[in-house]
Design goal:
Elements lengths: L1 E7 L13 E6 L2 E5 L5 H6 L10 E3 L5 H4 L1 H11 L7 E4 L3 H10 L11 E4 L3 E5 L3 E8 L5 E8 L2 E5 L8 H9 L7 E6 L8 H6 L4 E7 L1 H13 L6 E3 L5 E4 L1
Parallel strand pairs: 3-4, 4-5, 5-6, 10-11, 11-12, 12-13
Antiparallel strand pairs: 1-2, 1-14, 2-3, 7-8, 8-9, 9-10
Bound molecules: zinc ion (ZN) (2 copies).
Length: about 240
């Protein structure tokens, strides 16, 4: 079984009741985060969890709506949650220097035992519970989608994709030749209706559109309607949990 809870589903700008990107992934007794565009700590605490419960954090790319929450998270892990030991995967390691510089002025400095690793394409992580593969997208240099296997399920997090035609140039490539149980895809940098053909060519068992804006919402709904007899489509909202059994 795999459980995904959306802690932040907005695009570059928060919207009412929608934080920037962050998702909690739970498999067996392990927990992971994908992106930290909002500080995950209070959202974890609201669920009876703390940073100490997180085994790894996978950042898709350096934009602030996917990373700004790391500052608060790592600050608290440096002086309060000293038992927290997540492996934090950064696509752009220069953000670690920025993090160190910032946190040196907010508390006693970034705790040295916090573990950071550079994301690279291909097999990235395997703790015996989940296996994570990173696939480059064309959103910006060092931007990645993640294909994650665990609990007998397979989920795809698209991250942000190429503006204009991302569903054709990015999604079609990294969704190909794979039986995906749940594809979580972004919906803001292009017309979401462009997903129609790639999805029909490589249909996941379920689709969840994330990271959409009020401007793209109408065409997200058109896509959902167009696929209604083929693929179940959900629009992600903060607090939504999807369980794959
Ligand atoms: Zn984004
Ligand atoms: Zn971005």
């Amino acid at each position: 079984m795999m459980r995904i809870t959306f802690l932040g589903t907005s695009h570059g700008v928060p919207e009412p009741n929608r934080n920037c990107s962050c998702a909690l992934l739970e498999v067996a007794d392990k927990r992971y985060l994908i992106d930290a565009g909002v500080d995950p700590t209070p959202l974890l605490i609201n669920r009876g969890l703390t940073p100490c419960d997180i085994s790894a954090i996978f950042i898709t790319h350096a934009h602030g709506d996917h990373t700004n929450g790391l500052i608060s998270f790592c600050d608290l892990c440096s002086w309060h949650f000293k038992e927290a030991d997540p492996q934090i995967f950064l696509p752009d390691m220069s953000q670690l220097d920025a993090l160190k510089a910032w946190i040196s002025h907010t508390c006693g400095g970034l705790r040295e035992s916090l573990r950071f690793s550079q994301v690279h394409e291909g097999k990235l992580f395997d703790d015996g519970v989940i296996g994570v593969e990173a696939i480059r997208t064309q959103h910006m240099p060092n931007a990645y989608a993640y294909r994650i296997k665990g609990g007998g399920k397979k989920v795809l997090f698209s991250g942000d994709m190429k503006g204009g035609d991302g569903p054709i140039t990015d999604y079609a490539r990294f969704a190909a030749d794979d039986d995906i149980d749940l594809a979580i895809v972004e919906g803001v940098h292009f017309d979401p209706m462009l997903y129609l053909e790639p999805l029909r060519n490589h249909p996941p068992k379920q689709l969840c559109i994330n990271h959409y804006s009020w401007r793209s919402l109408e065409n997200c709904c058109r896509l959902k309607n167009a696929l209604k007899d083929e693929i179940p489509v959900t629009l992600a909202t903060d607090g939504l949990t999807i369980e794959l059994r």
